[in-house]
Amino acid sequence: MERKTAEILGYKVDLLSFDEALKTVLDKTEEQNTQTVTINPEMIALGEKNQEFSEILKNADLVIPDGFGIKLALMLYGIKQQQIPGIEFSKKLIAHCAENSLPVALIGAKEETIQKACENLKNEYPNLKICYKKNGYFKEDEERAIIDEMKQSCPKLVLAALGVPKQEIFINKYKNEFQNTMFVGVGGSFDVWAGNVKRAPLIFRKLGCEWLWRLIKEPSRFNRMFPTLPLFVFKVIMNKK
User: Fold this and answer.
1) d(Cα 141, Cα 81) in Å, to the nearest integer?
2) Do 210 and 88 touch, CB atoms closer than 8 A?
3) CB atoms within 10 A of CB 18
4) pLDDT tens column, 131-168
5) CA-based angle 23:146:56, to the nearest 5?
6) In which element (H, E) is residue 5 found?
7) pLDDT band at 241 (very low <50, low <70, confident <90, very high)
C-alpha cells in the first residue's frame, strides 16, 4: 500500500483507518523492524526544541494520530481522519501476538506496575507469551546489558513505557539490533493495564475528548497542556494561511 500522509508543521502523519494502520505495521514487520510513533501536539512542540527527537518523529515507519489536537489540525486542513489512540493500537498488537504465539517484551514504569500489568494482560490473553519485562528505572550505562538480554528472548513486539521522548530515543537507538520486530512507545499505558489509572468513560473517548477527562482528573496536567495546545492550533492555522 502506498503511504498516504499529511504534513503538520513539518511532521508527517499517516492517514489510515485503525485497521489499515494495524495491517501496515504487521506487513512492514515481515520485512523489517518497525517503529510506530503515536503523535500528539506536545510531541511536535518538543520536536521543535529537540533535534534528535524531531528526526525520530520524521523518520518513524508509522506515525499515527493519537492526540485530539492532531485530529483537529487535520480537520483544519480539510482532512477527515480517524483518531487512533496509542493505548488501543498497542492492545490490538498484543491481541495479535497472543493469537499467533508471538513473544512480547515490555519495558518501563515502576516494578510493581509492570508486574501487575503483565499479570492483567496474561489474564485477559491466556495465550500471551511475555518473553521479557523490565522496569524503567535503569541508568544509561545499563542499557547495553538490558538490550542483550532482551535480544536473547527474541520478541516480535516491544512496548516501551519510558515517557516521551526517552522511549522514542531508546527504540530508535536499538531497534535495528532486532529482527522483524515491532516497537511502540506507549507512555502511561502500563499504569492503565495495571489498574493504577482508569481511562476516560467511553463517551469521552468516542468524542475524542479523553484529554479533557485526564485534565479534569489530573489538574496538574494543565501547565503541560497549556499554552502548548492553543499555540499548536494557532501555528496550524497560520501555517494553513
Assistant:
1) 41
2) no
3) 15
4) 999 999 999 999 999 999 999 999 999 999 999 999 99
5) 50
6) strand 5-8
7) low
Helix (H) or strand (E) holding 124: helix 111-124
Contact 167, 136 (CB under 8 A): no
Cα gap 36→153, rounded to integer Å: 21
| Residue 226 CA to its chain's centroid (Å) | 21
Measured distance CA(72)–CA(204) in Å, rounded: 16
Taking the C-alpha atoms of residue 45 and residue 127, their distance in angstroms, rounded to an integer, is 40
Stated pTM of the model: 0.94
For the chain, what is the radius of gyration of the CA atoms? Answer: 17
Longest dimension (CA), the chain: 52
CA distance 70 to 215: 17
How do residues 52-61 score in pLDDT, each as one tens digit? 999 999 999 9
Q: What SS3 string covers 36-79? A: EEEECHHHHHHHCCCHHHHHHHHHCCEEEECCHHHHHHHHHCCC
Buried b (16+ CB within 10 A) or exposed e, 133-166: bbbbeeeeeeeeeebeebbeeebbbbbbbbebbe
Three-class DSSP category at 240: helix
